[in-house]
Amino acid sequence: MLSRSVSFRVPSIFNSFANLISAESTRHGGHSQLPFSSLNLGLNTADNPQHVQANRNLFFSQFGIAPTQVAFSHQVHGDQVLVATQAGHYTGYDALITNSAGLFLSVTVADCTPILIYDAGQQAVAAIHAGWRGTVAQIAVKTIQAMQQTFGTNPRNCYAYIGTCIDDCSFEVGSEVAAEFEDQFKRYDSDKQKYCIDLKNANAAQLMTMGLPKSQIEISPYSTVLHNQDYFSYRLEHGQTGRMLALIGLKSNSLNK
Asked: What predicted TM-score, i.e. pTM, was given to this entire model?
């Protein structure tokens, strides 16, 4: 926690990599007012745009980077992967990958699963937005495949963080959505007459299928619903809420000094 009480968490799986910047924001320390209070980093919300931009500037400044160094996309709950070579606002991608130092990738979430990946062998990174549709479409698998094709990534050299999202006891869905998931990632609640889906472990399984060792995958213990005092939840707050941001990137030489 730094100036203006901006709070974020750095995945411990990445702690030993001095050349890497990674973080997941919370909802604390920004300029936004209710119902977006306070560190709303989502551009596509009904919040005051000036507050959102001030929040983003404040958040990025915690890591010594400028907003002009960040690549992000208008997410569409799809499975398209962007090979980012420069910063900017893209459209239609739910995963971004790069091996460019000084370029930082970000995704925004408020129940969906953020996934950050670092390839320690080829010095490349990825940021993934995996909602239930993206999870079903195997966006985590497709991102690793894109890294293999583009950078020569060996999954055994990768480290991953599966971030804070809606928890399996809160993500209730109907039978049509549940049918898209394997049995080990869903359970039926007879009292609620709904299925509950485990997005975190569904995505972890995809990464392990691609060859990432289980010991190199960290899963956030936090929930957007159960820990709503610290995180935004689109479902719990009926759509009137902000967005967290997950960030990853390789330091440039100037940042290493």
From this structure: 0.96
Taken in order of first residue, the domains within the chain and their CATH numbers are: 3-252 (3.60.140.10)
Neighbours of 257 (CB within 10 A): 6
What whole-number distance in Å separates Cα of residue 178 and Cα of residue 238?
Answer: 21
Side chain identity, residue 20: L
| Digit-coded pLDDT (tens) for 170-217 | 999 999 999 999 999 999 999 889 999 999 999 999 999 999 999 999
DSSP letters spanning the chain? --GGG--EE--GGGTT-TTEEEEEE-S-SSSPPTTS-S----SSSSS-HHHHHHHHHHHHHTTT--GGGEEEEE--SS--EEE--S-EEEES-SEEEE--TT-EEEEEESSSEEEEEEETTTTEEEEEEE-HHHHHTTHHHHHHHHHHHHH---GGGEEEEE--B--TTT-EE-HHHHTTS-GGGEEEETTTTEEEE-HHHHHHHHHHHTT--GGGEEE---BTTTTTTTS--TTTTTT----EEEEEEEPPHHHH-
Q: How many CB atoms lie within 10 A of CB 141?
A: 16
3, pLDDT greater than 50: no
**What pLDDT, on the 0 to 100 scale, is given for residue 6?**
81
